[in-house]
Write a structure and sequence with these properties.
About 30% of the residues lie in helices and about 20% in strands. The chain is an alpha/beta fold and about 575 residues long. Strands 14, 17, 18, 19, 20, 21, 22 and 23 form an eight-stranded mixed β-sheet that branches. Strands 12-26-27-28-24-25-13 form a seven-stranded mixed β-sheet. Helix 7 packs across helix 8, helix 11 crosses helix 12 and helix 13 packs across helix 14.
Length: about 575
């Protein structure tokens, strides 16, 4: 049965069950009435939007209730870890708007964890096992039947100590010896059946060098690191619910080792689990994301089709839009699949208030205004952001020849076609009303493709003049001046996957076809997830925008300059459209 997940806080906005526990603990004076949290990523990949949910609560609640949050890298597995990932994690956290109090590493506690493990051996609570991993797994039993004891469970303490030292000597072969906690092989929680707490790797560590060859397992290192660091609230996702009793047991043992048994329940880290952030049409496992990168199925960790924080940044999401989305979906005790349309809706609302409006034409066709003086140009005023007057204005050039979107013209138009067609009038954004010639309306190339459209303009209808109020049936079109427009590359992104839940679909394909992950991935990837348009035109004001700027291409959507931009060759990524397109895709 699921508990009530939102509780009224003093009659104000409801709070999540996680926050309510913080409120209750502080009110009860637990841990001295303080809050200290940590965000503990493993530096084996780039952070994705699921991590942003943990970041928001770890840092956000600590700040809200006068505490602090540390960044602690869970570097207990030197096989997969890299300084590149450490740097990217730090950058992403800062970009999201959060600051840590301290940076720690699980490896900072390796000596204390080792000494603690030695004490457990001396207390008869841990032993060295030399069975294979397969033998150990077979002896674990099942959820309905107890396990059986290892034949090495009752080794003498002195022998265990000697073998434990040997595990770290560099001479012990990985997989031949492990250290196990001695708990209960009949315990209903399978994790209590003498769990592994140390294994041999013989791999140098990026921080500790060759000092350690035996490394602590996650379940042994995590809770103890929290305790040694003074963490009061440890938040993690729902798969760790079954790990919580083991977390608590190891912390209790460590407090006993340190002689800190007074008020043991009031002064300890408390683990609380919440649901993961899962998005439709999105794959979030770091293992699978690494496969996509290594196999060249995407252009890197920051490919805008990826769910990584750096990819969302490159695609043009603001950090505020991500945290607003997380706040909107909240924290519960039930896993679910969040709709990608909801994320894009939040992003769209956010960008509407901050994006600078500019003109860009993605599929251009030339318009010649025959009654506009040849060689003449004029400067018109464009509002940067109608949602924020403080963003000011900029100038755009208007002249005899302009570019418009090809689908804004139809030579033989339906009656309801309200854009440019022979005999029809339209208004040009920030400029004039123009009318397409009824005769000789356009020119075409040898393939019948329209190359030039001929129009006239009404000089009394310039934006800001009294004539601008003249009513017409046609729509208002965006445009750019042929004389000053800058050629640009525009990248249009769609979902990377053709199925709503790619994780489950991949698993089903692999099970049915007995194939590897890459083969399964290729069967469900969207071949149209990226479209590159190389013959677009943008106004100079847009071409000069810096990477990280938020833009709205009028009538087209929200865009941002890409890091591939070079002098004279601007590149833009589409962030999100002006309207929701997910419903019709489904």
């Amino acid at each position: 049965m699921v508990e009530n997940l939102t509780i009224e806080n003093d009659g104000k906005k409801s709070v999540s069950f996680v926050e309510q526990k913080v409120i209750d603990d502080l009110a009860a004076g637990k841990n001295g009435g303080k809050i200290q949290t940590r965000f503990p990523p493993e530096p084996n990949g780039y952070l994705h939007i699921g991590h942003a949910k943990a970041i928001a609560i770890d840092f956000g609640l600590a700040k809200k209730y006068g505490g602090e949050c540390n960044l602690r890298f869970d570097d207990t597995n030197p096989v997969k870890e890299d300084t590149e990932y450490i740097e990217s994690i730090e950058h992403d956290i800062k970009w999201l708007g959060f600051e840590w109090a301290n940076i720690y590493y699980a490896s900072d506690y390796f000596q204390q964890l080792w000494d603690f493990a030695v004490w457990l051996i001396e207390q008869g609570r841990a032993y060295v096992d030399e069975q294979t991993s397969e033998q150990i797994a077979q002896q674990k039993g099942t959820t309905t039947s107890p396990g059986t004891n290892s034949p090495y469970r009752d080794r003498p303490v002195e022998e265990n100590l000697r073998l434990f030292e040997y595990m770290n000597s560099g001479q012990c072969q990985p997989g031949t010896l492990v250290l196990r906690a001695k708990i209960d092989m009949a315990h209903p929680n399978m994790l209590f059946r003498d769990p592994l707490i140390y294994r041999v790797l013989n791999i140098p560590h990026v921080k500790t060098g060759s000092k350690w060859n035996a490394y602590p397992m996650y379940d042994f290192a995590h809770g103890q690191s929290d305790y040694l660091e003074g963490v009061t609230h440890s938040w993690c996702t729902l798969e760790f619910v079954e790990h919580r009793p083991l977390y608590d047991l190891f912390v209790t043992w460590m407090k006993e080792w340190r002689g800190e048994t007074d008020n043991i329940e009031d002064n300890r880290p408390r683990q609380t689990e919440f649901n993961k952030l899962n998005l439709s049409y999105t794959l979030m496992s770091k293992r699978n994301l690494l496969t996509l990168v290594n196999e060249g199925l995407v252009a890197g960790w920051d490919d805008p089709r990826m769910p990584t924080i750096c990819a969302f940044r490159r695609r043009g999401y603001s950090p505020e839009s991500i945290t607003k989305f997380i706040d909107k979906i909240g924290y519960t005790k039930q896993d679910g699949l969040n709709d990608m349309a909801l994320l894009e809706s939040v992003v769209r609302d956010d960008l509407n208030s901050r994006a600078i409006r500019v003109a860009a034409v993605l599929d251009p066709v030339k318009v010649v205004i025959t009654n506009y003086p040849e060689g003449q140009t004029e400067k018109l005023v464009a509002v940067n952001n109608p949602e924020n007057e403080a963003d000011g204005t900029h100038e755009v050039e208007f002249g005899r020849e302009i570019w418009i979107e090809r689908d804004d013209f139809m030579e033989v138009a339906e009656k309801k076609f309200m854009r440019l067609a022979p005999g029809k009038e339209v208004r040009l954004k920030n400029a004039y009303i123009i009318k397409c010639n009824e005769e000789n309306a356009c020119e075409k190339d040898e393939n019948g493709r329209v190359t030039t459209i001929y129009c006239t303009y009404d000089p009394d209808t310039r934006s800001g003049l009294p004539g601008a109020d003249r009513k017409i049936k046609g729509k208002t079109l965006h445009w750019v001046s042929c004389h000053e427009a800058v050629k640009a590359e525009v990248r249009l992104y769609d979902r990377l996957w053709n199925v709503e839940n790619p994780r489950d679909e991949m698993a089903a394909i692999r099970d049915e076809q007995q194939c590897d992950a890459v083969t399964a991935m290729k069967q469900i990837m969207n071949p149209d997830s990226l479209t590159i348009l190389k013959n677009c035109y943008v106004e100079p004001f847009a071409a000069n925008m810096q990477v990280g700027s938020f833009l709205q291409f009028q009538r087209l959507g929200y865009f941002t300059p890409d890091i591939d931009t070079e002098a004279g060759h601007p590149v833009f990524n589409k962030t999100v459209g002006l309207k929701d397109t997910w419903a019709k895709k489904k």
